[in-house]
């Protein structure tokens, strides 16, 4: 007899507006304690100093996690001129100083050079593993760390002006694996100056934005006052940009058992995200599937 899993069956997304000073895993830990779901995970790490959108997947939503972690993200950040720091943000030690303060025109002139696929060296104080160990652990232990360049994608980069303190505000839309701290550092270097970032805020992850986010405090209030299904976003929210296909009852039965369904019509679409299709029966999400050679093949089947 199979052992019953412990926990509450809660399926869906909670979008937390993460406050400063707490890590992503700490947010997951608190929600796990509050809700006791069968499964839980977050869709994209935010450093403790960063704030903003942190998608939390519960139950069957964790099966859609790759679509969230791979999604485009939007950040806003302030670039502090004059000092480069060991962590590329406000926490580190000053390593380089400069009196060069670029003009608005100079800033706008160099931004196109950061668009598209670019090479980026991540901060030494990062969670990237080197020989099985986190880079920041090696640095804190006094070891020399050589970070290798990696290719990242910058889809949009906009200079939004300066504040009263002379810090420059930017907004960037980027792909998976981009380090905004490195981007700020490299913008300053490109302009012959030195800089580090502060007030990093993530405002969008795939389909999730600040309008769908709640604070940690609000999540605690809701967990004590309302059933989870009344305030947790549906699993399908993370898949809004994937084409949907309605199935017949016979086709749905096959898919529920993980079997492929044959279709004579051509379901391939040139803009189909990663070649995936959402399979629905009576508006209920059944599976994510691939369409190949006339067959719809389930990749992830949901128990909703």
Shape: globular
- Rounded to an integer in angstroms, the radius of gyration calculated over CA atoms is 22 Å
What composes the largest sheet? 9 strands, mixed
Q: Helices and strands: which structural class?
A: alpha+beta
| Domain module tally | 3
Low-confidence stretches: none
Topology as a string of helices (H) and strands (E): EHEEHEEEHEEEHEEHEEHEHEEEE
- Averaged pLDDT: 88
Assigned CATH superfamily of the largest domain: Pseudouridine synthase
The level 1 CATH classification of the largest domain is: Alpha Beta
Number of distinct helices: 7
| CATH topology annotation of the largest domain | Pseudouridine synthase
* Counted beta strands: 18
β-sheet strand percentage: 25-35%
Quickly describe the structure.
This protein folds into three domains: about 10-70 and about 210-235, Pseudouridine synthase; about 75-205, Pseudouridine synthase; about 240-300, Roll (Archaeosine Trna-guanine Transglycosylase, Chain: A, domain 4), CATH 2.30.130.
Structure characterization notes:
By secondary structure, this protein is an alpha+beta fold. It has seven helices and 18 strands. A hairpin with a 2-residue loop joins strand 12 (195-205) and strand 13.
Write the layout of secondary structure elements.
Elements: E1 12-18, H1 24-35, E2 40-42, E3 51-58, H2 65-69, E4 73-81, E5 83-85, E6 94-97, H3 104-110, E7 116-120, E8 129-130, E9 133-134, H4 135-140, E10 150-162, E11 168-174, H5 180-190, E12 195-205, E13 208-209, H6 216-225, E14 244-246, H7 249-256, E15 261-262, E16 276-281, E17 284-292, E18 295-301
Parallel strand pairs: 3-12, 14-16
Antiparallel strand pairs: 1-3, 2-3, 4-11, 4-12, 5-6, 7-10, 8-9, 10-11, 12-13, 15-18, 16-17, 17-18
Helix pairs in contact: 1-6
